[in-house]
Amino acid sequence: MVPPPKRKNPLRRTQAPLLPPSARSRTALGITAAAAQGRFVLQVCAACETVQYPPREICGACLGDELAWRAVPSEGTLLAATTIRISGDPYFRERMPWRTGTVAMDAGPTVIAHVQASLVPGDRARLVQKLDRAGQGVMVALPLAATHDSLDDPMMRELTNDPQDRRVLVTDGRHPIGQAVARALLAAGAHVVLGIADIWKPFASVDGAEMIELDLTDADSVRRCAAAYGGRLEIVVNTGLYTRPGGILARGDLTTARVEMEAAYFGPMRLAQALGPALRSRAADGTHPACAWVNVLSVYALTNLPSWGTTSASQAAALSLSQALRADLRPIRVVNVLVGPLDDEWHQTVPSPKVAPTALATAIVRALRDGIEDVAVGDVAQDILARWLDDPKILERELAT
Amino acid sequence: MRRGYDGVVVTAPTTIPYERYSIHSAHRWIGQALAAALKRAGLRPRDVDGFCCSSFSLGLDTAVGLTQHFGISPRWLDHIPMGGASGIAALRRAARAVQAGDADIVACVAGDTNHPDSFRQQLTGFSRFSTDAVYPYGAGGPNMSFALLTDAYMRTYGATREDFGRICVSQRSNARNTPHALMKRPLTLEQYLAARPIADPIALFDCVMPCAGAEAFLVMRDETARALGLPSARLLSTIERHNAFAEDPIQLRGGWAVDRDELYGMAGVGPGDIDLLETYDDYPVIIMMQIEDLGFCAKGEAPAFVRAHDLRVTGDFPHNTSGGQLSVGQAGAAGGHLGLVEAIRQLTGETLGAKVADAKLAMVSGFGMINYDRGLCSGAAILAAGG
């Protein structure tokens, strides 16, 4: 395991937040899409079933042009390995030595992959697809039998966002989600800073967390938080999910919609503008660099649920903001956690299944540890996401009952 | 049965001395090589009716643009993107053109420039497969690719670093007489073994040095060469193969193994008749594969072969007699012409450095294009003295 970070020597240079090589063909982004969700896929020819790699336009066995991304067995044998000590690329140059190898997959293809330190040629290996710091999918060869701790080394740290020994800001300690997330992160070994709006009013403390004043709707509050904590945070989790029932016509005016937009869109934008530059500048700083920005979003950000019409619209704005942040904050990983109805006071009329805040918190910690970027938590969110991936127009009509 | 190359000769071996870095573009290097080859042959630009070019650094230009740039008007034109196999491929195509009368004099030229950082930029976009599936994995470039092939070869056949070192040390010895070789400082096996590791098991002296340079030769009919008073070498046979053994999970052999019987059969000679061998040598492991796959020993026995033979110009198995790319430098696509140009020099007696005694038959071998995990192009030719 990587030992906890030492106190930084202020005289030493701060490593610049470089990106690994990020150019890919459009087709190769199929691996990025799978890695974002923690899946493993390769192209398979519809005509002859040949598994393909590297990503292709045309089947290398039969010239077929219908190559769909499918889950395939990911095991193989490591045939050769090298420890690269000299690289022309600035990102890898700062991270030498780097281990790379050739894996012959049981499914057929030969894969050049990042190779975990304990693997030696001849070993059986399991390939996984992970997002690198450029946000691109890469192949990684791991030992068949591996635990989270045995894999924790500098290479895996480049491909994951483990909260262990990192300082995490959780934005909203007045919300049950914020409370649950703070507890889960503390249990995962993080140092937690928990934001509380109007801190002079009574609030429920979380043991072990540092409670600070933070109100994303208040520009001054956000500025003060950034001044005090901007340079010493590695992860930000925006838990301020604000959802209220009601359709467009039922509302009658813009009052609630404005509050929703402030909570879902302007507040997080304010926070990103205040904290983002400092976070990004420390994205390669030391053994536990700044690494992730997590947004909790309603799954109805994907497609509007008219009975929650204004909330859905504000969540769509939040999702769009999040997509823009992915590019702006890179190499900081922006993780979108899509959630269905929560088991809280605002969803009393909504039938089960509903998501408990603790389940959401567990999913966030797992996403950070595994380096995942898109997560749907709970049965409803997964169902809506599956329908959306299948056909967004059909889903739109399904929800507009 | 393939038709032979009766009456086809190669002549005017030309090298523009290499430089580590150049402020000039590839156009200049290629143009200088063309000019030098024509000057050697006593020809004017309009006498060239066939032109074949290989380069990685011409930007958007191809052989087409170079005709206008150089003021030539060929009736036969080719541009060959095969890197280390481009010399053999150029020779084969040009030979058939002059044999059939599609052209009378074909100038085959390869050249590349090298600026600081241009090698890295070239690697980032070398091929679709390498952009997607090689470069993001440590960006080690060809050092990484050949480290994996070397690692697999060593595990499979028991080759040692000393075996590879023997090849590199011999070539350095050969290079000491080559005026334009960029690396001429004597190299011992101890120095080879103690060198800085680059990508295990590859160390500094296993790697070629990217540089700027150009190579050229002329292909014509025997009677044309005689009329021009040019010493030349006869072309006896050639082979070419791409994407051979695609089913092998990792490359331990190349396309030569598919076609070598045809290579010897067409020339009517055997491996024992070859007086000198010029292999493609960007890394020593690929030299071992060529020695095996071209029939000089059985598969997996190249390590024993290089232990049993002296690979220097004066040795019993003269190999890469100018020092090869490992000592002269790798001037991009010109690296795929270097061995061929040196073989012509040895056979016509126009050597720049040391001469192989009584050289009558030379074999030249090409290997190119690590598109993803292996080199895809292979080729070879047998040349004879006395055009």
Describe this structure in words.
The complex is a heterodimer of chains A (401) and B (387). Chain A is of the alpha/beta class. Chain A has two domains: 130 residues, no CATH class; 233 residues, Rossmann fold, CATH 3.40.50. Chain A contains eleven helices and 15 strands. In chain A, strand 1 and strand 2 form a beta hairpin. Chain A is globular. The mean pLDDT of chain A is 95. With 387 residues, chain B is of the alpha/beta class. Chain B has two domains: 128 residues, Peroxisomal Thiolase, Chain A, domain 1, CATH 3.40.47.10; 222 residues, Peroxisomal Thiolase, Chain A, domain 1, CATH 3.40.47.10. A nine-stranded mixed beta sheet of chain B has the order 3-2-4-7-1-8-11-10-9, sandwiched between helices. A two-stranded antiparallel ribbon of chain B has the order 5-6. In chain B, strand 5 and strand 6 form a beta hairpin. Chains A and B meet through strand 4, strand 5 and strand 6 of A and helix 4, helix 5, helix 6 and strand 5 of B.
Average pLDDT confidence of chain B is: 96
| CATH top-level class of the largest domain in chain A | Alpha Beta
Q: Strand count, sense and closure of the main sheet of chain B?
A: 9 strands, mixed
Task: Provide the gyration radius of chain B in Å.
Answer: 19 Å
State the main characteristics.
heterodimer; A: 401 residues; alpha/beta; Rossmann fold; 2 domains; seven-stranded parallel sheet; five-stranded mixed β-barrel; 11 helices; 15 strands; globular; B: 387 residues; Peroxisomal Thiolase, Chain A, domain 1; nine-stranded mixed sheet; two-stranded antiparallel sheet; 14 helices; 11 strands
